[in-house]
What does this fold into?
Amino acid sequence: MPVIKAARKMNIYTITCDYLPNNIAHKYSDEYCNVSIIDKEAVLKKAKELNIDGIMSFACDPGVVTAAYVAEQLGLPHCGSYESVSILQNKGKFREFLKKHHFNVPMAKSYISVDEALRDVELFHWPVIVKPTDSAGSKGVTRVENPSELRKSIEYALSFSHCNEFIIEEFLEKIGYSSDTDCFSVDGELKFVSFSAQRFDEKADNPYTPAAYSWPGSISLEHQKELSNELQRLLNLLDMKTALFNIETRECTDGKAYIMEVSPRGGGNRLSEMLKLSTGVDLITNAVRAAVGEDVVDVGQHDYNGYWAIVILHSDKPGIYETLWVSKEIEENIIEMDIWVENGDMVGGFSGANEAIGTLILSFKSEEQLHSIMVEQEKYIKVVLK
It folds into this structure.
């Protein structure tokens, strides 16, 4: 919806597509096409019929490869080649690429055979993380403590995979908070880099689904500089162009900093919107500009104008939503509250990002205030079920 709003301001005609006519964005676009975003040939055919000027998949991983394919086939502005984007969007290919080019990378291997993976248990130091190679929003992700639990986790991961492929990788113990936030390159040069503090809810059905983010992040300045340089090296190797990127990184107890994920799209959970609030840089409008071949403007490194956080509102267990309780102690910190459900609606137990029920944007006067409230969110924010 923010992308459609930005395009409208630029007098760009917007066409949304997927296989679900009731998805909310279709109510705001100028036109809707019922075509699956993972069917790249079908999307290409429709794009030709409509004579489009640009294509993008924003905050939606399954459509990123398709968008790159269509852009390349039609000679439209694109963030990088279909081949490069395919590497970034497949966790197995991405880990292999990082290893080949001597980036810091955890021991990892992708599989299509459950039995083959079970035979490889001696390859890994435990615990490990099991996840689909092509899913987003932390869907299908589990931490596995010992080999006896592996098959169940693999089957769970495969239930979320479009390509029936999964990856096993050694678990990296982080220092502080991992980072999941957006960055922007212009003609292959990183012009805007940010690092967040990505926070999780250990009580949720899936404790690896991000439950909140705050800025600035906790990664050391030394490792921020190293990661920025390594990200630039990665973009050079893949010959990436002008694009908005969602990037996950972490600083670990082994003394190293790791690039975990790089996707040429805006991040979910309103990350680009948060960065506009906290830095003034409009990544969304510039992503639209890039998609239709217009010049990017005013994208550069800016300091944070304070201390910011977004809470991904969710229920810790399935049930019937009644209300959201917010402590009066944080009323002055609330910038925006956006609730997507109503009293009486069924809600899930937050097994993935798709089960969020809204967002709460907060601003703080100090890092100490931010930290004290965010580490004890349950004292200040509660989803009340009937």
Summary: The longest strand covers residues 243-251. The chain has three domains: 2-80, 107-170, 179-385.
